Amino acid sequence: MRMTDHIRVDELLTDELLETFRSRAPEFDATSGFPYADFEQLDQIGYLRAGVPSELGGLDLSFAELGAAQRRLAAAAPATALSVNMHQIWVSVARRLWDAGDRSLEAVLRSAVAGEVFAFGISEPGNEDVLFDSKTVAKPTEDGGYTLSGLKIFTTATPAWTRLGLHARIDGTNDLVFGFVEKTPGVTALDDWDTLGMRATQSQSTRLDGALIAKDAVAAILPAQPSADPLRIGIFGAFELLIADVYLGIADRALELAIEASATPRKNTPRKADDPLIRRRIGEAALALDGASAHVALVSDQFGARQDKGFGWFRPLVAAKTLAVRAATTVVEEALAVAGGAAFFTKSELSRLSRDVRAGGFHPSSNDKAIETIAGSLLGPITRLEADASKG
């Protein structure tokens, strides 16, 4: 089905609906309350199945269209967009495999249509290898499943998810199991989400103590080492690019607010926008946003087309997320300067955006890891001199 045959992003996420979300965002932020009302309306319009193929009951949005939708949603309600982002990541991974003829995650697509909400359980304290290893321990069960013990952090949308996609190292092996758990007695959400920004995402830590990946919920068994297998590339790519779109959406709104603020009068001028310094700030903000947007759009198109890059995927993917977060931070800072003291008050939307945008640096890959990945793609691995045994 071509784009002209199905619903457009602006028809799915209408201006009226987004204004409703924007009007709720301040209260959700102030109370650190989860945006249940937003999720309910998103479910009603089919947004949780937007990326599912039409033959399975979805809206059949392409990956690029889904990214554009997330960007549009984030401009209105960043925490809502980030919350639903984790669901869309798993749907996108399953869709990518489906389009390649791999039906191993078909259950994810069908579950999304049935109303299940997916969350992302890959991050762990102290695990710098992320997808390539895990500190969570998986013990095989007699019927082909696994019980898990460990701690997952930043499990966004904790109050809403019904399926948590995660990984764990199989006890006594060098293998990882990827799969999904439900909210059972072995899954405990820790009430530890009291943060600077993205407060409404309720990204609480999740303790696993005998949590079960049932046999039919096992997605894959992969070695605990760097690889460019389709599942890992799918997870990493969908995560980096959809995260990038959320922060580009924040930048879109911040630039819009800066332009609005520039229309206010100033001493000896009809408006702030006539001040050369204000014009420079807005120009610099737009330049940063345009550059990041172009890279994210290019890589999203390539990713959606399933280009075969192997390990070559990691450099453009980490660059997309890093450039988007950097640009969003720049745009928000310039917008704050343009708006002036009014933006310092908590009632200011820019004040909230300035806190929300700072969450971008904590999503994998971090800025340092991204630079390390990019340098490694150009310079190869770090070489080390062998110790001279004769010198003791």
Architecture overview:
It is a single chain. This protein is an alpha+beta fold and 392 residues long. It has eleven helices and eight strands. The chain has helices spanning 9-12, 15-31, 36-44, 63-76, 78-99, 106-114, 230-261, 276-304, 314-339, 349-356, 367-379, and strands spanning 118-121, 137-140, 146-152, 163-170, 175-181, 187-189, 206-213, 218-223. Strands 1, 2, 3, 4, 5, 6, 7 and 8 form an eight-stranded mixed beta sheet that branches. The model has no long low-confidence stretch (mean pLDDT 95).
Describe the sheet with the most strands.
Answer: 8 strands, mixed
CATH C-level name of the largest domain: Mainly Alpha
CATH superfamily of the largest domain: Butyryl-CoA Dehydrogenase, subunit A, domain 3
Mean pLDDT: 95
Q: Low-confidence parts lasting 5 or more residues at pLDDT below 50? A: none
CA-based gyration radius: 22 Å
Helix and strand run: HHHHHHEEEEEEEEHHHHH
- Approximate shape: globular
Distance between the first and last residues' Cα? 69 Å
* Oligomeric grouping of the chains: single chain
| Number of helices, counting only DSSP H or I runs of 4 residues or more | 11
The name CATH uses for the topology of the largest domain is Butyryl-CoA Dehydrogenase, subunit A, domain 3
